[in-house]
Structure formats: structure tokens, C-alpha cells
């Protein structure tokens, strides 16, 4: 994952080098900033993703993706506490609706354990771990928003810097993990926390694993760059809509290949979560603005000159003033 993010840094410098050789550079000069600012978001990314990957082994892929919608709750609360943002009533309503959606998805997850793929205790533990991880992900998002907007960091550079820190830290952690005993939890022949040499042997003997890793690296690189670009250039609302489409695709593929069974409550839970996300991100406002009783009358603001005065426009010349 971090190798995919780290590759964005190389792409940034290639893009910067090509831009400098143009007659009219399109990239604005970057403001100086300390790269260590992105170390805390990288640590949050590493911790939150590790917890979610452990939880993914205890629950289904669709529930894993849907429960990640809990990040809206914690992001909103942390934005109020640390960014000084004031949430409007529709955003508070979106948080409450999201909480209701999480309850429905969790209930569907527990009722769907009849196939005995996962034990009920594992499902509950996995769901709770996913929701707990969203607290860490919310901290990461708040930190990213603060640093990217404050220093006007290019999205490729931001993602690549986080990937660099995460890749270096995890690479160093692989050394002690190779010797730390973990019993059956490690899942390796030596029963250690992480057997790196055995992992490389598996990659060499099974080309399908190498293909999956290459796909994971490239998809994460494009996904993170696209997500931050959409947030910076368009809006978080658009990113929310696109992320919801990802949930539908994951669920559809899981059902198609037979990795999980269909449960009607998951549809209800997903729709509730989508409604909560839409309310929080203000997706309902353009729809309400189109209602007839929400539009002002044609002459409500008076003439063009009066509207300019209301908006603080320039004063029209009077009595020969120039």
C-alpha cells in the first residue's frame, strides 16, 4: 500500500521536471513546508489500515467497506474540535443517520453468519475493529486537510510523502517482526509475527500473488491521488459519491463470485449510510434549491445596479464624478 503511495512522489517529480521545460509552466511554485508534517498522517494511515486488514479477515468485504462509512461521524466531530468548524443541522442529522446505518449493517452482518464462514464472535470483533479504525482514519483526514490547504501542497507530493514515511517505517518494522513469536496468529511456518523471507518465496513461486500485489500497488497509487485531487479541485461531495460507487462494485463482485451471501438488510443499511453521507456533505442542497418555493421572485433584488450595490460593487459615477 505504501509502495503504491510512494510511487506518487516519483510521478510528482517527473511531472515537475516536464513542467519546468515548458515555455509557460502550469504548476504554481510550491510553498516551502516541512515534510515531517506528513509523518503523523502516515502513522495514522499505517495504524488504521493495519487494524482494518486484521478486521477484514473476520468479516465480509461488503460489510468492511460499508462500515468504513463511520469515518463521517468521527471526521465531523474532530473537525469541530480541532479545525474550529461549525456543523450545520443537516450535518448533525447526517451523523445520526450514519449511526443508524451502521447499526443496520452490523445487524445484517451478524444475521449473515449462518454460512459458518466466520464465527459470530469474529464478526462482532471485526466490525468493532473497523469502526475503531475509523477514529484513526478521521484523525488522518483532519491532519491532511489542515496541511494541504495551509501549505498548498500538490496532491501527488502529499500522497508520495506519506507513502515514503510509511514505506520506510514498515520496512524497518519487518526486521523485529521476523523474530517476534506470534503462535498461530502469525500464520507462517515459523509462527512469527511476519516471515518476510517466506513471503518473498511465495511471491516467487506463485506469479498470481505477484500480479495481485502489482495491481494493488497501482490501484492504491491512482486511488489516493484521485481522492485528494477531487477533494482539492472539486469538492468532498464528489469524492463521497465516487467512494459510494466503489462500495457497490465491491459488494456486487463479492456476490458474483460467491464470496458472500445476499442479505436484504445490507441494501437497507447501505442506503441509510449513503443518505447520511449525502446529508453530511450537503448533497441535498442543490436539490432543495431547485424547488419552486425556495427560489426568490424575479424582481426581489431590484435592478442590476441595486444588486451590485448589495454585493459591494463599484459605485456608479454621479454628478460628473470620474
Automatic annotation (TrEMBL):
Keywords: Membrane, Transmembrane, Transmembrane helix, Transport
Gene Ontology biological-process annotations: negative regulation of mitochondrial outer membrane permeabilization involved in apoptotic signaling pathway; positive regulation of cell population proliferation
Region (Disordered): 300-322
GO molecular function: transmembrane transporter activity
Cited Pfam families: SLC35F
Localization terms from the record: Membrane
GO cellular component, one term: lysosomal membrane
Major subcellular location class: membrane
Membrane topology of the entry: Multi-pass membrane protein
Keyword Chloroplast: no
Ranges that cross the membrane: 67-84, 90-111, 123-143, 163-180, 208-228, 248-280
Assigned protein family: Belongs to the SLC35F solute transporter family.
Protein name according to UniProt: Solute carrier family 35 member F6
Organism lineage string: Eukaryota, Metazoa, Chordata, Craniata, Vertebrata
Gene: SLC35F6
Amino acid at each position: 500500500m505504501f509502495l503504491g503511495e510512494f510511487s506518487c512522489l516519483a510521478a510528482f517529480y517527473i511531472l515537475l521536471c516536464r513542467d519546468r521545460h515548458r515555455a509557460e509552466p502550469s504548476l504554481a511554485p510550491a510553498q516551502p513546508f516541512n515534510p515531517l508534517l506528513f509523518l503523523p498522517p502516515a502513522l495514522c494511515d499505517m495504524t488504521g489500515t493495519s487494524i482494518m486488514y486484521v478486521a477484514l479477515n473476520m468479516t465480509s468485504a461488503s460489510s468492511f467497506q460499508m462500515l468504513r462509512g463511520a469515518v463521517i461521524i468521527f471526521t465531523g466531530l474532530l473537525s469541530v474540535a480541532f479545525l474550529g468548524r461549525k456543523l450545520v443541522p443537516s450535518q448533525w442529522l447526517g451523523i445520526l443517520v450514519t449511526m443508524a446505518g451502521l447499526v443496520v449493517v452490523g445487524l445484517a452482518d451478524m444475521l449473515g453468519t449462518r454460512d459458518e464462514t466466520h464465527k459470530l464472535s469474529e464478526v462482532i470483533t471485526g466490525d468493532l475493529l473497523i469502526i475503531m479504525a475509523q477514529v484513526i482514519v478521521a484523525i488522518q483526514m483532519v491532519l491532511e486537510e489542515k496541511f494541504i490547504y495551509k501549505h498548498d501542497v500538490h496532491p501527488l507530493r502529499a500522497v508520495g510523502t506519506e507513502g515514503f514515511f510509511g514505506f520506510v517505517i514498515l520496512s524497518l518494522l519487518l526486521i523485529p517482526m521476523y523474530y517476534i513469536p506470534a503462535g498461530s496468529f502469525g500464520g507462517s511456518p515459523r509462527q512469527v509475527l511476519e516471515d518476510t523471507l517466506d513471503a518473498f518465496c511465495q511471491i516467487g513461486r506463485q506469479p498470481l500473488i505477484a500480479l495481485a500485489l502489482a495491481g494493488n500497488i497501482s490501484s492504491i497509487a491512482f486511488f489516493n491521488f484521485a481522492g485528494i485531487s477531487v477533494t482539492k479541485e472539486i469538492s468532498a461531495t464528489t469524492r463521497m459519491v465516487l467512494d459510494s460507487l466503489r462500495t457497490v462494485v465491491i459488494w456486487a463482485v463479492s456476490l458474483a463470485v460467491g464470496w458472500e451471501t445476499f442479505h436484504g438488510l445490507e441494501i437497507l443499511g447501505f442506503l441509510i449510510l449513503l443518505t447520511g453521507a449525502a446529508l453530511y456533505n450537503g448533497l441535498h442542497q442543490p436539490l432543495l434549491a431547485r424547488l419552486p418555493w425556495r427560489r426568490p421572485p424575479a424582481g426581489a433584488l431590484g435592478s442590476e445596479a441595486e444588486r451590485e450595490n448589495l454585493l459591494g460593487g463599484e459605485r456608479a459615477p454621479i454628478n460628473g464624478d470620474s
